[in-house]
Amino acid sequence: MLIAGFPAGAWGTNCYVVAPAAGEECVIIDPGHQAAQGVEDALRKHRLKPVAVVLTHGHIDHVASVVPVCGAHDVPAWIHPEDRYMLSDPEKALGRAIGMPLMGELTVGEPDDVKELTDGAKLALAGLEFSVAHAPGHTKGSVTFGLPGAADIPPIMFSGDLLFAGSIGRTDLPGGSMEDMLESLARVCLPLDDSTVVLPGHKEHTTIGKERATNPYLRQVAAGQGASPAPRRGM
User: What residues contact 97, with CB distance under 8 A and at least 6 apart?
Assistant: First the structure.
């Protein structure tokens, strides 16, 4: 499997290009602010042909390059219906304090072809099967994408802003909910095998096993306890 990832834009949002191997079809995950050139560089380097863009949620730092990327390759974008409005109205999604300063810098809108994700769906794209888990908390329409392990490749979860190494996503933006976040951690993350790799891991990759042992939020959820407010990391 080929996973080419890079941080994009002012927020360093992790964008991924995923394919069975070089020279094949691929899926683009979370092409955020200023990610278009990085996507094109990865496609050219690995001789890849994109078939879809999939989005873990609708915040502008994860979707700002969706229109140019989808338009350049005539591919659909997949997003959960609860977050679809964010493609064309990021100010509403972020609140005026954060959203208004961005509006003069970014051109937003929906790509020509938008498809909606559902909880438990299996997306067969580019020769891979992504499992979709609705994981509200960071936003109402946040999802994770899972890939099963094979041979010497461990299972992988693209977590968006649900789970990081040692932390979780913020819940203080419109649509955020600590109660929903904790429920999503318990329902989506705790059942996963310890070997499951979590992407992104913020500054380093991590695994569910490591997070069970070290992440205070996941430990508190596992123990059936509440958690203190999440740190403000990312959008």
Answer: none
Can you give the pTM of this predicted structure? 0.90
Residue 4 and residue 28: Cα distance in Å, rounded? 10
Interhelix angle 66-73/36-46, rounded to 10 degrees, is 40
Question: By the 8 A CB rule, do 158 and 145 touch?
Answer: yes
d(CA 227, CA 50): 40
The whole-angstrom separation of Cα 121 and Cα 114 is 16
pLDDT in tens, 132-183: 999 999 999 999 999 998 878 899 999 999 998 889 999 988 889 999 999 9
pLDDT per residue as tens digits for the range 55-88? 999 998 899 899 999 999 999 999 999 999 999 8
Helices (H), the chain: 36-46, 60-63, 66-73, 90-94, 96-103, 178-184, 208-214, 216-222
Q: What are the tokens at 212?
A: 């069970």
Structure token pair of residue 73: 């390759």
The tokens for 170 are 């913020």
Amino acid type, 122: K
Average pLDDT, the chain: 88
Buried b (16+ CB within 10 A) or exposed e, 96-128: eebbeebeeeeebebbeebeebeeeeebebbeb
What is the signed CA dihedral for 96, 98, 99, 104, rounded to 10 degrees?
120
Q: Taking a C-beta distance cutoff of 8 angstroms, is the pair 135, 221 a contact? A: no
